[in-house]
Design goal:
The structure is a single chain. The chain has 137 residues and is of the alpha+beta class. It has a single domain (2-136), classed as Glutaredoxin (3-Layer(aba) Sandwich), CATH 3.40.30. It is built from six helices and four strands; from the N terminus they run H-H-H-E-H-H-E-E-E-H. It has a four-stranded mixed sheet, with helices on both faces. Helix 1 crosses helix 4 (56-66). It is globular.
Length: 137
């Protein structure tokens, strides 16, 4: 039983993700303000991903979905920023649920679309499509 519990803890730890490592892995920003300035300069929108360590679903979102080449291509119109739930971010994006993804209009700094939880590639691509439609309005 002790070995089984140790294995479960190890798997859980491997699936977890910290914001700094995820930002580095995905080439995302770690600061909302830095990402916002970059997005405005590049005339792009902002995608904010809120994670927490430990969170196996956050790890799956980073490792399985956001790392996928098709998803990366779909997100070319965004500057990505990934922040720990306890990190510094605007109050309007604080959330008790993770992972949470906000697709943000850089002009208004308001979320045009929100995606709660881990999303596999197909659902995430649908979220990106919906966010793009909402941002055009």
């Amino acid at each position: 039983m002790k070995i089984f519990m140790t294995l479960i803890a190890l798997v859980y730890a491997l699936m977890a993700v910290d914001a700094e490592s995820a930002a580095m892995e995905l080439d995302y920003q770690e600061s909302y303000q830095t990402a916002l300035a970059k997005a405005k300069k590049e005339n792009k929108n902002l995608m904010l991903v809120v994670v927490q360590d430990p969170c196996p679903y956050c790890g799956k979102l980073v490792d399985n979905t956001l790392s996928d080449p098709e998803v990366k291509k779909a997100l070319e119109g965004y500057v990505g920023v990934i922040i720990d739930k306890k990190g510094k971010m605007p109050k309007q994006f604080h959330t008790s649920m993770v992972p949470m993804t906000f697709f943000i209009d850089t002009k208004t700094e308001k979320a045009a679309w929100e995606s709660l939880g881990y999303a596999k590639k197909a659902r995430f691509l649908d979220d990106v499509k919906t966010a793009n439609e909402e941002l055009k309005k």
